[in-house]
Design goal:
Number of helices: 2
């Protein structure tokens, strides 16, 4: 197509098509994906996983560093106080984030054979945020805890 030449709508030659798709692909790859999860999305995700249960405070201890210099692999430990007997034990631990692209981190199912209601893992965090943990027990109780963490890039604010 020559400069100044009129093009009928919907008619492109191969070069025009390649230019447009190449420019679109470049924009998509250069645009970082924004963290999208919000506290409201975490509440919705909690409801999907646990239904409309009433949450109690206490029993859950979340261990995270105060500041993570790199959000790519943050060490996290969750412990739930209580017995791990056949009649009374933690059956599940569910984890969510309020600042990652998706709110759901994961769930772990437990039984009395675990001995302790305790898990350790590394998580990826997109930005400073709160981690939300819910625990279910064999007696139908549900507990909830939140822990904030500041994620920096190379230890320089953020």
């Amino acid at each position: 197509m020559m400069v100044g030449q009129a093009v009928e709508p919907g008619h492109f030659d191969r070069r025009d098509f390649l230019k447009m798709t190449g420019a679109g692909a470049m924009v998509l790859t250069m645009t970082p994906f924004a963290a999208e999860a919000t506290p409201e999305m975490v509440t919705e995700a909690l409801a999907k996983v646990l239904g409309n249960k009433k949450f109690k405070d206490g029993r859950i201890k979340i261990t995270l560093p105060e500041i993570a210099e790199n959000g790519a692999a943050v060490a996290m430990r969750v412990a739930v106080d209580g017995p791990m007997t056949a009649d009374d034990h933690v059956t599940a631990i569910h984890m969510f984030s309020e600042g990652n692209p998706l709110p759901y981190i994961g769930s772990y199912r437990l039984s009395p054979r675990n001995g302790k209601a305790e898990i350790s893992l590394r998580i990826r965090l997109a930005q400073s945020q709160k981690i939300v943990v819910a625990a279910e027990t064999s007696k139908g109780e549900t507990f909830l805890a939140r822990q904030g963490i500041k994620v920096t890039l190379g230890g320089c604010g953020g």
